Amino acid sequence: MEKASTIGLDLAKNVFQAHGADASGAVTFRKKLRRAQVLEFFSSQPPCTVAMEACGGAHFWGRELGKLGHAVRLIPPAYVKPFVKRQKNDAADAEAICEAVQRPTMRFVAIKSEAAQAAAVVFRTRDVLVRQRTQIINALRGHLTEFGLVVAQGPAHVAKLVMAVQDPEHSLPEAARPILCVLVDMLGLLDQRIKLLDVEIARRAKEDDLARRLMSVPGVGPVIATAVAALAPPADTFKRGRDFAAWLGLTPLQHSTGGKQKLGGTSKMGDRTLRRLLIIGASAVVRWAARKGPPAGSWLAGMLARKPPMLVRVALANKMARIIWALMAKGGIYRAPVAAA
Q: Cβ distance 214 to 327 under 8 Å?
């Protein structure tokens, strides 16, 4: 077998596909590997560039192959797809990965450490529990609507749903009440678990220096600050704050041609959790400004005066992302700009 300078590895649960190429791009081997054979195979290969799609398990394999002396590159799957030829199969995917990594302008995903992945578990778990809580609230609202009780949306009105189920004087069919009580009990259990996770997140925010500094930014609380510290790649991954905001998917899509620039909605690329949290934090700032009034002459006051509220929230989330990158890259805390007189 000829020596390969680049190997494309298509990850799977059990059967992996490796595609090797030399410096000129010529194919040196195509090989299927069982999961137990992967490390043994790569330990016998001379140090080379190993490319994989950034997906579940990619960071684990990136760390393990890096220990063997290989230069590991993770590529976003969307950047690999254009290199797939006609048929979709494991061999074609591995070849496409091998070709994509050789492009001089290709962009890569930073490999996360085991500690960084462990720190992200609390946010993934909280997201799951919050989604389940929302599902149960919607189920309660839907069932009670069938019996003539209509309750407004929003967490502030959940108590009315619970009281209607638990009130024996309410005109609910007795056959339905015990079943609805199961949903109410599950809702209470989820609330307890979410509160425990919030306490854990607040504890981590107090112990982490970066999280404490990020909380000086308006709209950034313990959840957002700890999420950025755990989920965001190192600041030196990006040249400027605008690149970090683009990575989060907070920049508009371009549909430009013939010298005419056309911008659409946000790209929604990058980390979904961080993007959602930043928009929620920006929404809180906008709501506060709508009640109390933004500082005269400020950027936010000008945006609220001429733009729709949702557009202002996303624009503010973009601005928050750039501020967060500046604090990550340069240190210090946020200092509000002085409005012009």
A: yes
